[in-house]
Amino acid sequence: MLTVFNHLHTVHHGKVEMFRGQLVPCFEVPARADYVLRELQERNLGPIESPAEFDGSAFARVHSSRYLDFLANAWDEWVALDPANAERDAFPSYWPIRTFRSDVLPASFAARMGLFSYDAGTPLTSGTWRAARAGACCALTAASHVLKGARAAFALTRPPGHHAGPDFFGGYCFLNNAAIAAQALRDAGVDRVAVLDIDYHHGNGTQAIFYDRADVQFTSIHGDPHTEYPYYLGYADERGAGGGLGFNRNLPLPRGTGFEQWREALIEALRGIAAFKAGALVVSLGLDTFEGDPIAGFTLATPDYLRIGEDLARAGLPTVFVFEGGYAVAEVGANAVNVLEGFMQ
Ligand code: SP5
Ligand code: ZN
């Protein structure tokens, strides 16, 4: 399988994130992508290339222009507030929740930081915009290979994307790489695109982007939001809105779920995807379902990921894989590459 690797990913390197009242070292670190790259090379999974250049128009198909403008300038604005900020990651402190306005774009940087985010665990750093942009280009390049007839392609990038919505960042995500790829497939003439999100955390950003659409079906298997991040979305009764009713499917599972039960949800998800008669599949490939993951609660083991790849292949669809979460750094390479190898067998 061909991999499109974001060689610029290292310029996004958060120092700390807010967790239980403390700033703790980031879980979402550059080494994650490097372990996956090394495993791809060691196991000779296929060619590894750099992304093609794309202008921002494909990003603007799923993100608002005021959000993209904010991201493009955020770091410079942060440093302009205080030159000492160059040594610190930027975090939001204020959020416009219920009863506040979101139509006004405040002049204050802090106020806009909160307007365009939903958690304090997602540091914005000097290289965030450059890394995220190159990552979205990886997703677009992978989609272009599939459009040209490749059976599958893998966008290996960080920061991840599936928590980023039309106009917000969060959950370590800034640009929604999977949504950008799915929209690009649609814009190139694929009538129906299925997105399957197998990260431990509900793909709230992707769901939000496609919630009222019947041309992109979104399915997510994830930790029950009653107890798991992102808490406020990902319940089974979220089925889509308006013309999109019936094209959103959430399969939450309790913390502690093991592979046999998880796989039943996967088979059920694939049944729904088959019924949708998609022309292409985008997989949000999170590996934080692994038993050793430090921030998640399922108990999948490394060999299980081969079987996941085999199950995904049986959908018989041209497939774009997009790297998402997975924080057991030393094992994330073997787990990711097992999915891809299982798929190609
Ligand atoms: C892409 C992705 O996987 N984003 C996940 C963002 C999760 N951020 C919140 C982490 C909450 C951690 N709860 C930890 C319990 C650790 N003992
Ligand atoms: Zn995750």
From TrEMBL:
Keyword Metal-binding applies: yes
Keyword annotations of the record: Hydrolase, Metal-binding, Zinc
Classification via Gene3D superfamilies: Histone deacetylase domain
Family annotation (InterPro entries): HDACs, His_deacetylse_dom, His_deacetylse_dom_sf, Ureohydrolase_dom_sf
Domain Histone deacetylase per the UniProt entry, residue ranges: 28-341
Cofactor(s) needed by this chain: Zn(2+)
SUPFAM superfamilies: Arginase/deacetylase (SSF52768)
CDD domains, A to Z: HDAC_classII_APAH (cd10001)
Keyword Zinc: yes
Ranges annotated as spanning the membrane: none
Pfam (any one): Hist_deacetyl
Family: Belongs to the histone deacetylase family.
Protein name (record): Histone deacetylase family protein
Organismal lineage: Bacteria, Pseudomonadati, Pseudomonadota, Betaproteobacteria, Burkholderiales
